[in-house]
Amino acid sequence: MKAIWVMTALVMAGAAQADVTVCKMGDSVRKVSVVHMDNDSSKPCDVQYSKDTEQPGEPAKTLWHYGVEVDQCAIKAQGFVEKLSGMGWSCAKEGADAAPEAASN
Predict the structure, then answer these.
(1) Looking at the whole model, is its pTM more than 0.85?
(2) Residue 66: which of 31, 32, 37 has the closest Cα?
(3) What is the pLDDT of residues 71-85, one digit of tens each?
(4) Are 84 and 23 in contact (CB under 8 A)?
(5) What confidence score (pLDDT) does residue 68 get?
(6) In whole angstroms, what is the distance from residue 96 CA to residue 33 CA?
(7) Is 19 within 8 Å of 7 (Cβ atoms)?
(8) Any idea what DSSP says for residue 89?
């Protein structure tokens, strides 16, 4: 649990880079984030998951952590987003101009 708080603090301090996908279903919002330390994709990363509307204020849960396996976090995050999309969630990269769309399987 302490590691989650430390990672969250680092993200908020700008010491980490996050690639965030926002998924929506009705009024519910969930986020899947790939967080790289020091803005460097070759450094350790986490895939984090938060349920913003269902658990407001709760820190994101770390689903996976990788040390030096380049792109593993992105691959795992994409697979998880596809799973959410398959369950009816509409997902899009945070900041994307287009409206979120469910992935077609």
Answers:
(1) no
(2) 37
(3) 899 999 999 999 999
(4) yes
(5) 75
(6) 14
(7) no
(8) -
Give the span between the Cα atoms of 38 and 9, in whole angstroms: 13
Distance CA 66, CA 70 (A): 8
- The answer to whether 22 and 29 are in contact (CB under 8 A) is yes
**Element containing residue 79 per DSSP (H, E):** helix 72-86
Q: Across-strand partners of 21?
A: 32, 93
Which tokens is 18 given?
A: 């996050």
Q: Which residue shows structure tokens 């369950």? A: 87
Quick check: helix, strand or coil at residue 88? Answer: coil
**Paired tokens of 88:** 């009816």
Look at residue 36 in the predicted model and tell me its pLDDT.
Answer: 86
DSSP letters for 28-76: EEEEEEEEEETT-TTS-EEEEEEETTTSTTPPPEEEEEESS-TTHHHHH
